[in-house]
Amino acid sequence: MYRQDKPLVAIFADVFTREDVQRTYHATGANYVNALVKSTNCTPVILPAIIDTENYKVILNKFDGVLLTGNLSNVYPEFYNKDKIVEPIDLNRDKTVLPLIEHIFSKEIPLLGICRGFQEVNVALGGSLYADIHDVPGRMDHRPPKGKDPEIQFSNQHEVYLTENGKMSLMAKKDTIEVNSLHTQGIDKLANSLQIEGVAKDETVEAISLQNYNGYFYGVQWHPETSATTDDFSIKLFDSFNNAVHKHSLEK
């Protein structure tokens, strides 16, 4: 049902510099904004990565949901007790988002984490990442196909096997889904409070939820935002997020 006062969904910006003009920007990928606009009845609001944790805790209480997006940058290794740096990095986003994740869960603000956002949740809750998952013995190359054509980059690359009787398999109403793949880092140690909702054929963790949690949270390693209005499971995922955001808005 249409509401004039649509619920607000926070999207934390990435910080990047255009080398050709030497200008720095706080921005997010258009695919994430478009997915919320076209597949939900929510209003996306981009928040700059200004490392203002205490103020943002207050600000987030005014929001009805949070979308943690993917990005070209990788999580800095000091946050998960490793030392291999994989460029590019975005310390502003790391230092803004990571300290806020437990607050989001404590307030049960609906949260959907995609790619980098999926990894951020694992790190914030005490898990760790592989820097280059394609260098781990037995793992596939999860990086995108070469070339600049978005249709090729975001095309389906492998299957995800959903956990039997898990939340996502019940949502999907099937055991296996096809997904794209555009990541360098991947989960190494899973945070103790998280549970696996799906894995790739090489056992790479691809989907997670939070154990014993009354709020809404899903994290996925792939990019459902690029098919939020066309792919069956992506539609279901964004629909579930939309419903949770509206419910939270009405209950506040």
Topology readout:
Blueprint: E1 8-12, E2 14-18, E3 23-27, H1 30-39, E4 43-47, H2 53-60, E5 65-68, H3 91-97, H4 101-106, E6 111-114, H5 116-124, E7 129-130, H6 150-153, E8 158-162, H7 167-172, E9 176-179, E10 186-187, E11 194-199, E12 205-210, E13 217-220, H8 232-251
Parallel strand pairs: 1-4, 1-5, 5-6, 6-13
Antiparallel strand pairs: 2-3, 7-10, 8-9, 8-11, 11-12, 12-13
Keywords:
252 residues, nine-stranded mixed beta sheet, two-stranded antiparallel ribbon, globular
Describe this structure in words.
This protein has 252 residues and is α/β, with parallel strands linked by helices. It is 28% helix and 23% strand. The chain is built from 8 helices and 13 strands. It has helices at 30-39, 53-60, 91-97, 101-106, 116-124, 150-153, 167-172, 232-251; strands spanning 8-12, 14-18, 23-27, 43-47, 65-68, 111-114, 129-130, 158-162, 176-179, 186-187, 194-199, 205-210, 217-220. The protein has a 9-stranded mixed β-sheet with strand order 4-1-5-6-13-12-11-8-9, with helices on both faces. A two-stranded antiparallel ribbon has the order 2-3. The radius of gyration is 17 Å and the shape is globular. The two termini are 19 Å apart. The mean pLDDT is 95.
